[in-house]
User: What shape does this take?
Amino acid sequence: MGASVIVLLGPPGAGKGTQAARLARSLGVPHVATGDLFRENLANDTELGGKARSYMDSGALVPDDLVVDMLFDRVARDDCSGGYLLDGFPRNVAQAECLVQRLDNSWSLAVVVLNVPDEQIIERAAGRLLCRSCTNIHHVTSAQPKVEGICDACGGELYRREDDRPEVVRDRLGVFYKETRPVVEFYETRGGVCRVDGSRSRDQVFDAIVECIGANA
Assistant: This one.
């Protein structure tokens, strides 16, 4: 594939992070997650991180233009020259517009949307187990660890996030439908959206995403 930006969209808990990591490995491109950008800039006390911290410390949202600056600071590195995969960005139409404006004609854009029913997302979240040491994710029913409480990948401790409680997940879904679903509509008007049934097995979802990207290459 040529220089391409792959945007993976979907509600929280749809499996974007899992699929993005696997897809990035398969394609040999960086997996750029918004959360990682914040953590890196804050940990390294960069100029962008300092600006973001000033908003976060006051309880304000980090402005879209600052988020976009962080993103393009990251993707300007050599490892992104052949393409990259975005997870967690864009979160709203303003960010989507910024992305389109900043990409020149040498880049192609593939947008994949994972569709999963709300109740299935809530069920997934309630059983999710995260590793404290790496990004691996287990589940109490669909992806049980070999040893209870221990990550298969690195041996780290598994835990459940407070954010995965059903009432919190419902609130996060509400935010998604208000802010991020219009992003899907924005890309649909540009004719570049491929929808994938994210309720199927991980392998089936992965294969469908690869097929979508190939069709839009």
